[in-house]
Amino acid sequence: MQFLTVNGCTHHYRLTVPESAADDAPVVAFANSLGTDFRIWDGVTDRLPQTVRTLCYDMRGHGLTALSDGPVSIEALADDFIALLDALDISTVHMVGLSVGGMVAQSVAAKAPNRIANLVLCDTAHKIGSPDVWNPRIAAVQKDGMSAIAEAVLLRWFDPNFKAASPEIYDGAWAMLTRIPARGYTDLCAAIRDADLTESTAQIEAKTLCLCGSADLATPPELVNALADLMPNARYEVINQAGHLPCLEKPDMVAQKIIDFLKI
After folding, report:
1. CA-to-CA distance for 147 and 161, rounded, in angstroms?
2. Which of 25, 141, 208, 230 has an alpha carbon within 20 to 30 A of 167's alpha carbon?
3. Inter-CA distances, 237 with 76, 185, 228, 234, 244, Å
4. Cα 29-250-46 angle, rounded to 5 deg
C-alpha cells in the first residue's frame, strides 16, 4: 500500500511501473467515481500496454484515503490531485476520470493545463444533478447510513442485465459502496451539487474523449454528449450495454478505447 499526505490529508494511491516501462514512460492517471475506490480500474489498467505507468488514487473519504477536516469542493479535489503529482515528481499525465472523477479531471485541466496531455472523461458532465437530487440523498445517508441508498445507487450504476450476468461483481460493488464512511460520501455529494464547471470546461483545449455507457441513468448519454459538444477538442463515444461504471462492466472495451485514443 502506498500513502502520501498532501494538502493536510493522507491519500491512498497506487503507482504501477511495469518492468518493461521506462522511468520516464507516459503516466495514465485514473480518478474514480462517487461511492467507489480505485479498484474499479483494475480491469482497465491490467489491459493497458506494459510500456506505460499507471496512477490510481482514492479521493477524500473514499477507499483508504482519510476523511476531510472540512467541506470538500471539486476545486479542492483537483488541488489534491495536482499536489499528489508534485509529490510523486510527475509533470504530465493522461487523465481518465469517471463521474466525480471526471469533474475533478475537468478542473485539473482548466486550472493546470500543462499537467494534462489528454483527457478521457467517462460518464460525467460539467454539471451533474441539482440540489433537488443531491439534498435528499445526503439526508438519507445522514439519517440511515449508506445501506439506505445502496439499492437505488446500484440500479443506476449498471445495465439492467448485469446483476444476473455477474452477481459476484455486483455484490462486490454493493460491499464497496456500503463500506464507505457516510461523511466521506456526503462530502462528495455536496461537492458535486455545488459545482458548475460549464464556463471553465468550455475553455479546456486538451484533446478529449468523452465516453458513456448506453444505459447510464446517473449521467445519461445525452448529458455526456453535451459535455463533448461544450469542449473545442472533444469527441463522444458510447459503450453499449453498460451503465454508469463501464470500467466494471466492459473493462476490455474501456481499455481499448483508451489505448486507441491515447495511441499507447
Report:
1. 22
2. 141
3. 29, 29, 9, 10, 14
4. 45
Q: Which DSSP letter does residue 46 get?
A: T
Give CA–CA dist 251/256, Å, rounded: 8
Contact 186/142 with Cβ under 8 angstroms?
yes
* Statement: residue 237 has pLDDT above 90: yes
Strand pairing class (53-57; 9-16): antiparallel
Look at residue 30 and give its three-state secondary structure: strand
CA distances to 27, 98, 104, 108, 200 from 125, rounded to whole Å, are 24, 10, 11, 14, 12
* Grid coordinates given for 75: 476545486
Q: Are 7 and 79 in contact (CB under 8 A)?
A: yes
> Grid coordinates standing for 223?
448529458
Burial class (CB in 10 A: 0-12, 13-18, 19+), 211: buried
Residue 197 and residue 78 in contact, taking contact as beta carbons nearer than 8 Å: no
* Residue 37 to residue 222: CA distance in whole angstroms: 26
What confidence tens digit (pLDDT) does each residue in 27-84 have?
999 999 999 999 999 999 999 999 999 999 999 999 999 999 999 999 999 999 999 9
> pTM of the predicted model, to two decimals?
0.97
Are 193 and 134 contacting, i.e. CB atoms less than 8 angstroms apart?
Answer: yes
DSSP class of residue 58?
A: P
